[in-house]
Model the fold of this input.
Amino acid sequence: MLFNSFEFMLFLPIVFLLYWKVFKKLSQQNLLIVVASYIFYGWWNWRFLFLILITTLFSYGSGLAIEHFQGDRHRQKMVSIGNIILNVGILGIFKYYNFFVESLQELLSLTGIHLDWPTMNIILPVGISFYTFQALSYSIDVYRGKIQATHDLVAFFAFISFFPQLVAGPIERATNLLPQFIKPRMFDYDTAVDGCRQILWGFFKKCLIADVCAMSLNNIWMDYQHQSGLVLLNGAILFTFQIYGDFSGYSDIAIGTAKLFGIRLLNNFNYPYFSRSIPEFWRRWHISLMTWFRDYIYFPLGGSRCPKWKTIRNTFIVFGISGIWHGANWTFVSWGLYHAYILSAFIYFGIHTKHDHPAAYGHLLPNRKEATQMLYTFILVAIGWIIFRAESLPQAWDYISRIFTAFTDAGPKISYQKRPYLFIFVMLVIEWLQRTRPHGLYMPADSSIFSKQPVRWCLYIVMILTIMLFKGAQGEFIYFQF
Done:
């Protein structure tokens, strides 16, 4: 079930009313969440509910087993490793089996060896990478002693399958989300209203940024070999904002929806395109995934508390894995390594990139240095997104090289549309003004501009009407494929 579908517009208020008006006990609310989450996911393909069920049961059992073997670290470690192998094995079969077989066949063919290894015709389950990592973090944290194993099976089912963030994150930690399903929740009007505002902002970014950009972008990529460098540059910029509007829009809708049920999800984006360096960008983009890699891979490898060459090695490992996490294609791996290479330069030269405050803190506009830093960071990120968007490495290289070499139109022109850039401009202005706040429509109680209810409602109505009138063609969220 898509957030931007008619079915979800009916599904959400029904579940909301049942949750607060009918099922008022904690156990009943948790059970309702589980049922609603399985309906939400099963709406796409009910057969893959068995995968979530297997992941949930084995992860739950691993926590109890680790608790049972208290004092026996060897057995606890074996249980934790077993759960990791099971979940990563399921993920590997469905997401990477064909990729590794085909890559191995191509590699061996270079030596004259022809491997006739069959591939499988399987569909990638939506969101499998997200809920798998969420389940893994639970058993690892129980093993590390950061959280106690839960005995509440229904609460654990709710933790793994909570529908707002089930298929595209944020990737929640048991230390944050699981306790919220164990303690009673009370309806808070102000939190629910803020959740609705965040949902509206998410739809703005999805429908008016991502979907509108996609309308022009798809035409450019289908015929990029015959377009001028200026048109291809336009395509690179549009995709940079499309993927941000799409993914951060989903996160805003998910976080806002969770607030309606008294659940606080972790922030997943923190205005990444206002970053002053690539390291800062990765502290602001897909925060839940990058902190997962930091805590469960980067730190165990030694993190930055080791010689520079090891820190660089750890960075390449993390971003190589991050690339393959995004998809079974060498373009994703290369995209991850591209960012690792840039980050390694910062590490090698010891360039300070941590800031206590966002850009232009306390000022309306950035100074020249900050503006320059944000511009070159945006350019580097946009180049990376070309690699990410391409279907193959030769295509990525051809696209990037043609931006700088194809100075004349060699084929039919792609008509420029002002609408995507109009909405991008509006989004950037709003997010710049709100860059110290949780989301674009966050309105604190002391807000002087929106302290009057009629002003707020005028804003809501204008935004809703704009979305209805100018939204792009309805499409799935990009990160559903990951």
